[in-house]
Amino acid sequence: MGKQRKVSVVTGAAGHIGGNLIRSLLKRGDLVRVLIHRDFRAIDGLDVETVEGDVGNPSELENAFDGADVVYHGAGFISLLLKSRGLLQKINIEGVRNVVNTCLKCRVKRLMHFSSIHAHRQEPLDEFVDEERPFVRDSRWAPYDYSKAMGEREVRKGIERGLDAVILNPTGIIGPWDFKPSHTGDAIIRMATGRLPALVRGGFDWVDVRDVVSAAIKAEETADSGSKYLLSGHWVSVEDMAIFVNKITGVKIPKFVAPLWLAQIGVPFIGAWAALTRTRPLYTTVSLMALRGNHHVSHAKATHDLEYHPRPFKDTIRDTVKWFQDAGYIS
């Protein structure tokens, strides 16, 4: 008899991590089941079992998790707005609690939980952020950051109840198969099509989604229960990212680079214009806070345990732009 295929369930299948993860799990030979809400583009044409639902409904989670060997929980709500506390609470905290409880009820063998670097405090800025850096502690912080920290606490509570779980904290994710697209993907598209009127000073640690997925699968196979890994890449400024895009596409980059204090003054006007044009505001109070963040995020533990070596940023941005071009986002 042949080896029994692993049953892997992916929540957030429509998302950036989900679209890449499903393809890697299928390549591994898994039987893949996805929990998906509305957007089916990331799984179009793939040999997966589909369960429609969301993390707010425990009965739908049971339908998805029944008989699962591993659940990769990637479903989450990402918001750069201060007014999104309600949805962040419902999806990123209560939703994680539902996932944990359902994993225990269905006797799922392992939960892989995708958290975020945003769950951790950035200060002090002159010291490396690692797995021991304290969490964001209360709701006075950016709502998204607080929700990811609280979501991790729900997983820890599950581990105390006997759940086998591993936590992954990627930094800013970019890369191919970004169907929605993500906030950063949207910025790259605007850079590549000349639709970004100005840049801002500051930057972030960016990691290739394919490296995150490879590390997640390696951790699922080898990590001890309760393990946690920061998955960082390379700190790159917004201006340098635009220069990389310019070298690939030839599209001119904005000449004006606003200091963060000036960009903050412009946030209300940017928000008003986005509301008028029904577009996503790239620069918000929350996103500008992130661009002031720590330049030094350590992936030493992941490198030691998971043989994690993030690829060069130039390779990631090249492949990202090419995917957007091939997919029709960049003409």
Question: How would you explain this protein's 3D organization?
Answer:
The protein has eleven helices and twelve strands. It is of the alpha/beta class. It has a domain at 7-176 and 205-233 and 295-311: NAD(P)-binding Rossmann-like Domain (Rossmann fold, 3-Layer(aba) Sandwich), CATH 3.40.50. A seven-stranded parallel beta sheet has the order 3-2-1-4-5-6-10, sandwiched between helices. Strands 7-9-11 form a three-stranded mixed beta sheet. The chain has a two-stranded parallel sheet with strand order 8-12. Strand 1, helix 1 and strand 2 form a beta-alpha-beta unit. 47% of the residues are buried.
Q: In summary, what is this structure?
A:
This protein is 43% helix and 15% strand. It contains 11 helices and 12 strands.
Feature tags:
three-stranded mixed sheet, seven-stranded parallel sheet, 331 residues
Relevant CATH superfamily of the domain at 7-176 and 205-233 and 295-311:
NAD(P)-binding Rossmann-like Domain
**CATH fold-level topology of the domain at 7-176 and 205-233 and 295-311:** Rossmann fold
Question: On the 0-100 scale, what is the average pLDDT?
Answer: 93
Helix content class: 40-55%
> Helix segment count?
11
How many extended strands? Answer: 12
Strand order of the largest sheet: 3-2-1-4-5-6-10
The topology string of helices and strands comes to: EHEEHEHEHEEHEEHEEHEHHHH
CATH class call of the domain at 7-176 and 205-233 and 295-311: Alpha Beta
Provide the CATH architecture of the domain at 7-176 and 205-233 and 295-311.
3-Layer(aba) Sandwich
Q: What integer value in Å does the Rg equal?
A: 19 Å
Envelope shape: globular
Strand content: 15-25%
From the N-terminal CA to the C-terminal CA, the straight-line distance is 50 Å
- The structural class is alpha/beta
